[in-house]
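fyi for ur records
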Amino acid sequence: MLTLIAALLAASTTAGTFTSQIRIRVFDAAGRKLTYSEHKPLVKLEGHGYARECSGHECSFNVQVASNETALSFNLTVYWLGVKVYRGAVTLNNGSSRTVDVRVNATNVKLLGIDDGGGRVDSCRLKLEGAVKLTLECGTTVSLPFGLYKVRSAELLVAEHYVPVEVEDDEFEITSDSREVKIRLGVANSVTLRVVKADGSPLANGTLKLTFLGSKELVRVYDGPIEGGVVKLRDLPYGEYLAEVYWSGLRLLSESIELGPSSATITLTTSLMPRVELHLLDADGYPLANTVVYIEGAGLRMTALTDEGGWASLRDVLPGFYNVSIKWLNETISAPIYIGGSGSAAVRMPLRTFKVVLTPKRASDLPSGLRAELLYEPGGYVLAQSSLDSPSPRLTLAPQIPIPIKAALKLVVYWGDRLLVEKAVDPYSRVRYVNLSFVDLGVEVVDATGHPLPGAALRIEDALGVREAVTDQYGRVLLKHLYGERFEVEVTWRGVPVARKSVAASEEELTLKTYVYNLEVVVRGALGQPVAGALVGVSISGPNFSLEVNATAGSDGLAEVKWLPAPPGSTLILRVIKGRVELARPLTLADLEEGVVEARLDLLMDYGWLQLRVGEFIALVAAAALSIAAVALVYRALRTRLAARKVLSEYRLEWEAAPSSFWDRLRASIRAMLGGEEEEEEGEFFEEL
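which gave:
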């Protein structure tokens, strides 16, 4: 060991010192300065126990080695971006100084990003793999070592954000001849976005927001106006985007679109309809003409005026649910509607053209002087009013404006100064019929036997008061415009109440049978003979009334007592007078219902100025009988003598001629003359002869 050390020391002391200076300048293959950001080439000089390195484009080395040689060879190595781009030998002379220019296996290359239209894309970034791994900005010049490279990824600067883009030509080779490298990227050179309405017409005055969805973060690539319905953009990366269209502060469209090689023009069709025809109808489907309508919904507020057909044109309308309203007096009437893409929509408002028709319940017409009002209840607003100057079958109240179907309405009807009706009415249909309780009541008044009773006085009490009427020659009367649901009818005859009935309004014809009777009084004398000219009277009395009905018997003894009022509870007395003879007797209901009574007077003979009762006649007959008997005796005596004289005169000659047969014939003649009287009388007469 000591021997070795001694040998080395001896060698070092005996060898000389080699010194030299060298300056090395590094260039690319074309003699240009290597460039890449702040990077510098690394130069190494090695040999003969000398090893030094320098980072820079120009390096100077002071070489000192122990050597007695006049020239020595050293190894020169150049690294660029960590890649050995040069290795060679350099010979240095002892005590010399020299400059060496080294061209390395690298060249300055300009990397260009190219879009699908062949245009240059500057705002991009490329990640390369090959001889070196670098991330380079598009459009920059960089010195790359020779070799095969692959673009692993690319990014495009969009709105201050780098977003990934596709790389179509991802491999290239760097040689000494390379000057530019064009990398075709998935970037659209020019994109035209057409924004249109539902019918394809351009959307003006809108805003487009375009967001790239292909990166980790959402990147808004455009946020600006839509001019003339078109937005033109450049250098957009391929991929998925979210397109949002705003108009009047409303988002009309939010749609995902895919941008690719064939997407030079993309049409964004919004749901905004340039024109919608709105048909405004009432609850029954009839148009509401000349009406100001307010439409609000989907973020829009519109006002329109309907035409005569109820149509209103709305411009720039979005599909959706709307609230359609109109003004009615001091209120707002609304209805929902959905407007779709058909270009027209109909809405039925909860109101209708309404009228109230007043008709009589059971009468042929309404009376004159009738007037009515239709009021809107909350404020007492008069919607319609009407009146009748003459009788009419109906009275119509027709408001000039449609009426809400839930409006609180009140109907008020007057007849003169009397309030007939005050009631709520609901417009649940276009026409509301209201029957007023007017009734035409036909009344026939008959007597107890069913025959008409003319001239009967009627007193009718309805809901409005008392009315009076008189039957005609047929016992009839038409009571017009009675009012109410029930009536009290009373009939009086000659001041005597003879019938009363409560009548429902449903009855159209009423027959009142009264307690009025027709009575036939047969006046006969004591022997049953008719008594002509007898005065017949019936006196009727009852509560608060009394009267007498008279008649005169005809030649047949018949007296007709017509229309005799005899209500229940009354007292009837029949009186028959003929001269000095008078009869009075009560009448019963049976007598009245039978209709015939016989009045027997104590009258045997009636000589007009003289009437003989039975007693008087008997006395007179007795006196007359005595007188007649005396006269009869005288008459008989005279008669006998006269007969004898006649016989004697006739048979005198025969007697003188034949006296024997004469007496036989004489007896036969006497028998024939006396009419077959008794033989005693015959004998007496014969003897007298």
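The longest strand covers residues 431-446. thats all i got for now
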